[in-house]
Structures are given as structure tokens and as C-alpha cells.
Specification:
The protein has 382 residues and is an alpha/beta fold. It contains 13 helices and twelve strands. α7 links the parallel β3 and β4. α5 packs parallel to α10 and α6 runs parallel beside α7. The longest helix has 24 residues. The site of pyridoxal-5'-phosphate (PLP) has 13 residues, from α6. Pyridoxal-5'-phosphate (PLP) binds next to α6.
Length: 382
């Protein structure tokens, strides 16, 4: 019996389907919880080990941590390492409170802002609440919502990737806002956020300021006036400490207590002694922070101009990355071309932004190479 082409294709598709199912089953343990069975975990950016790339895919800082940080790391003695770290993280929290003009009980620290965010979900939301965030934003938010089974309202960004604040109802229990947003880099003003805090007075507004130091207005100071504001920050970006994992939250003392309650029901020692000491040193070295942050801003601004010059569409960025697309060329192709030529950038497989690339701002010479490669590609395609 001869099979027609269509029948063959259908048969192959069926076979593929069975293979995918079998593959999934292969990695399933009969002991998995429903959470593990159903969740789609966050996929971190690639950290290649086999080859040297110009690595512009995970928004790391191109400058090393401050020399004062390295000195602080070296200062940890064997006897100190023998003991558990301070669960209150008092010295670091004192430095942070002093830096932002807050009281110590308005400051929480955790093992990276990912952990702080992960603790905020069970600290403040129930399975009957609704939290909202844009369709295009930090891709960890929907993962946390799913893991804690908190219903989410996902609100599409406008065509130009700005946020349509009128689309957020005032009945929400939570509203997550990355400012500047990721991966777009677009920021909103502090005045806008203050307006939201007043309009959504019964909603907890969580402002994720991971990239705020690269050009947006921080609302940390507003935490003293609004009990419905939690500001989350990280030392991974502007302070070059992604490898040490330090994140913070600032808010009213009751909110901080909520986070502490979750932390102490999970792991009281999330921040090790090395990270505690190094993070303190990073905040104290204001000169180094200012110099490196300004250098990144300058490199970003001229990169945006260069990319536009070669014909790319680039969103205005207040972050240490730019979000751009080469009209008429698939994002996947541009990403692969850059990869083949030694440059890693990030792309998100979401229909609306599949042709857009998020390019971290690296050193000037690294950005020169990116521009050179993209110029060649644009020329080839024109
Ligand atoms: C918007 C946003 N928030 C939070 C984080 C998490 O940062 P970390 O866990 O390194 O502090 C990231 C990391 O890329 C981010 O892009």
C-alpha cells in the first residue's frame, strides 16, 4: 500500500508527538508535586564555558567590582567563615538605610533580587488575589505567580512598548512594575508612580528598580510616605556584583516584617558573610559606582545613536541594555549572525518581540565590534 505525501506527513507528526510525550515522561518522577509537573521555570541567559564571547546577553556590568569590594572579600577570616553569618544582616542594612535616608526596619536584603521577589509573592498575595504586570516585562514574574498559584492579570504594552496604566483596574491586590522595564529599557517618572500609589491605594505596588541607576528616577524615598509601595533593587547591575547575589527591598516596616517572616520560614541565612561584607563595601565606594555608571550611560547613548544610524529601530533606554530590531530581518537570524561572530545577545521567543534583541551595554570596544558587525549585516540586507 502506498502512502500519500499528506498521510506521510501526518504519520511523522504523530510519531514526533509521541516522542515528545515520551521524552517528557522520561524526566518525570512519580514523586513530583503538581507544581513541578505544571510549572515552566525561568530560563536564564546562556553562560558559555567552552568559548570566549563578547557577552552581552545577561545585563552584567562590563566593569569589575570595586577594588574596595575585593578587599572586603579578602578580609573574611577562616574563623569568621566557621560561624553562621548575621541573620539580621545588620551592618549592610545599616549602610543601605543610611545611604537612602531610611530607618533600618525599612530595609530587607536577600540572595539576589530574584530571591527577594520570590519571597514577596507568598508574603503578600493569596491564591484568591490578583496581581498584574505587563505582557512584556521581566519573565520571572509569571513564573513566581504560577509557582505560588496567584492569579495574574497580564496587560499588553502599547505598540511602542510603553505601559498603558489606564488598563490596570483599581481592584488589584498587587501590581508589578519594572522601572525601567525589561527588556524594553523604557522608564516611567517618579511622579507617575506616585500617582499610581494614590490611585491604587489598596494595591501593593512592587517597583523593581534593577536598572534604575542607569537613568530612571528611584522611588525608594516614597516608601516612607506610602505603605503600599515596595521597591526592589539589586547589586547585580550597577554595582557589578551579579556573582555575589545581593538584592534588597525597601518599604514600610510592616512590609519588611512580612518578607522576614517568609525568609525565616525558609532559610534565615540567605546572605553569606562574604556577600554581606562585599555589598557593604560596594555601597560605600560611591566614587567607583558613579564613575562606572556614568561610563555605561555614555556608552549606551552613543550605541543607541550608532544603531539608529545603521537603520535599526531602537527604543529609548534608561537601562544598561538597548532593545532594538533590524527592520526586515528576523530577530533569530540577527542573533545567530552575532553569535557566529562571537557576540551573545538575548532574544525572547514571544510573538510580539521575537524580532527584537536585547543587547547589554559592554565596554566601548565591545560595542564598536557589535556596531561593525551589524553595519555589515544591514549592508548585506539592503
Ligand atoms: C528586571 C529584573 N529584576 C530582577 C532581576 C534579578 O536580579 P538579581 O537576582 O541578580 O538581583 C533581573 C535580572 O536580570 C531583572 O532583569
Amino acid at each position: 500500500m502506498k502512502l500519500g505525501l499528506l498521510q506521510m506527513v501526518i504519520l511523522l507528526l504523530k510519531l514526533l508527538f509521541v516522542m515528545i510525550l515520551a521524552q517528557k515522561e522520561l524526566f518525570m518522577s512519580r514523586f513530583f508535586s503538581d507544581t513541578v509537573k505544571s510549572i515552566r521555570p525561568y530560563v536564564p541567559g546562556e553562560q558559555p564555558k567552552d568559548r570566549r564571547f563578547i557577552k552581552l546577553n545577561t545585563n552584567e556590568n562590563p566593569y569589575p567590582a570595586s577594588p574596595a569590594v575585593i578587599e572586603a572579600i579578602r578580609s573574611v577570616t577562616g574563623l569568621e567563615a566557621r560561624l553562621y553569618p548575621d541573620p539580621e544582616v545588620a551592618a549592610l542594612r545599616y549602610t543601605l538605610a543610611d545611604y537612602y535616608g531610611l530607618a533600618m526596619n525599612q530595609v530587607f536584603v536577600g540572595n539576589g533580587s530574584d530571591e527577594v521577589l520570590a519571597m514577596a509573592f507568598p508574603a503578600f498575595f493569596n491564591r484568591t488575589d490578583t496581581i498584574a504586570f505587563p505582557d512584556i516585562t521581566y519573565s520571572f514574574y509569571p513564573v513566581y505567580a504560577a509557582m505560588y498559584e496567584i492569579p495574574s492579570l497580564i496587560v499588553p504594552l502599547e505598540e511602542d512598548f510603553t505601559i498603558n496604566f489606564d488598563a490596570y483596574p483599581d481592584t488589584l491586590k498587587g501590581f508589578l512594575l519594572a522601572n525601567p522595564n525589561a527588556p524594553t529599557g523604557i522608564a516611567v517618572t517618579a511622579a507617575k508612580i506616585e500617582g499610581l500609589l494614590q490611585f491604587h491605594s489598596d494595591t501593593l505596588l512592587i517597583v523593581d528598580e534593577a536598572y534604575v541607576d542607569f537613568g530612571a528616577e528611584s522611588v525608594v524615598s516614597l516608601t516612607s510616605n506610602y505603605d503600599n509601595l515596595l521597591v526592589v533593587q539589586t547589586m547585580s547591575k550597577a554595582r557589578s556584583l551579579a556573582g555575589l547575589r545581593v538584592g534588597m527591598a525597601f518599604g514600610a516596616p510592616e512590609l519588611i516584617k512580612g518578607l522576614e517572616c517568609i525568609r525565616d520560614s525558609f532559610n534565615s541565612y540567605t546572605l553569606d558573610i562574604v556577600a554581606q561584607r562585599a555589598a557593604k563595601a560596594a555601597y560605600e565606594d560611591v566614587t567607583y559606582f558613579e564613575t562606572t555608571r556614568q561610563a555605561i550611560i555614555a556608552t549606551r547613548d552613543r550605541t543607541v545613536a550608532d544603531l539608529r544610524e545603521l537603520g535599526m529601530t531602537v527604543r529609548p533606554s534608561s537601562a544598561n541594555f538597548v532593545f532594538c530590531t533590524l527592520p526586515g530581518v528576523a530577530g533569530e537570524e540577527v542573533q545567530q549572525y552575532l553569535r557566529d561572530n562571537g557576540v551573545l545577545v538575548r532574544r525572547f521567543a514571544m510573538e510580539r518581540i521575537q524580532d527584537w534583541l536585547r543587547i547589554t551595554i559592554g565596554l566601548d570596544e565591545e560595542m564598536d565590534e557589535v556596531i561593525r558587525l551589524l553595519q555589515l549585516l544591514a549592508l548585506q540586507k539592503s
